[in-house]
Amino acid sequence: MGSQTLIERNKNQDYSSQQQVQSSTISVPAVTLSQPHILTVSISRGYIDGTIELNGRVLHYLQDREIRVDLSPHLLRGRNTLKILGDYNPEQASVKVELAAPQSQVSQQMAGNGRLGQIIILEVQ
Questions:
Q1: pLDDT digits (tens, 9 = 90+) for 48-101
Q2: Do residues 37 and 113 touch, judged by C-beta distance below 8 A?
Q3: Does residue 105 form part of some domain?
Q4: Cβ-Cβ contacts under 8 Å for 119 (sequence gap 6 or more)
Q5: Can you tell me whether residue 73 is helix, strand or coil?
Q6: The pTM is what?
Q7: Is residue 5 part of a domain?
Q8: How far apart are CA 62 and CA 24, in angstroms?
Q9: Structural domain contains residue 51
Q10: What's the Cα-to-Cα distance from 6 to each of 16, 67, 79, 83, 117, rounded to whole Å?
Q11: What residues form DSSP beta bridges with 79?
Q12: Considering only CA atoms, which of 83, 88, 78 is closest in space to residue 113?
């Protein structure tokens, strides 16, 4: 796991803001792609406004308290970049990001600044 700074351009406003982004990498055996790889994004209270992107394509908009998405049909062999970006309110709420796959699991929780920034690299081999 690492941390990096991402300059994100807001689609609705003409400015850039710095956002802390957490990143992690997991290996995914290609033989498991026929089984569900469930991404869950949830907030303890309040709401999230953002996107789930895979390889630069929006898979889902974050607008509920809990979102579940099966990534299996969208994963390709090689490097897949999953981005979960957005805002949440209230800032004191905690946001949990979990990826449950047949042979691996990633779970991270963040709170305190109202910004959601998570990148998960899935290496399908």
A1: 999 999 999 999 999 989 999 999 999 999 999 999 999 999 989 999 999 999
A2: no
A3: yes
A4: 21, 22, 23, 24, 81, 82, 83, 84
A5: helix
A6: 0.81
A7: no
A8: 20
A9: yes
A10: 10, 23, 20, 11, 9
A11: 123
A12: 88
> Residues 6 or more apart from 41 whose CB is under 8 A from it?
48, 52, 62, 66, 67, 84, 95, 96, 97, 98, 116
Q: How many domains does the chain contain in total?
A: 1
| CA atoms 87, 88, 92, 98: torsion sign | negative
CA torsion through residues 89, 65, 61, 104, sign: positive
Residue-wise pLDDT for 56-68, tens only, equals 999 999 998 999 9
The position carrying tokens 């089984």 is 35
Distance CA 103, CA 80 (A): 17
Q: CB 91: neighbour CB atoms within 10 A?
A: 12
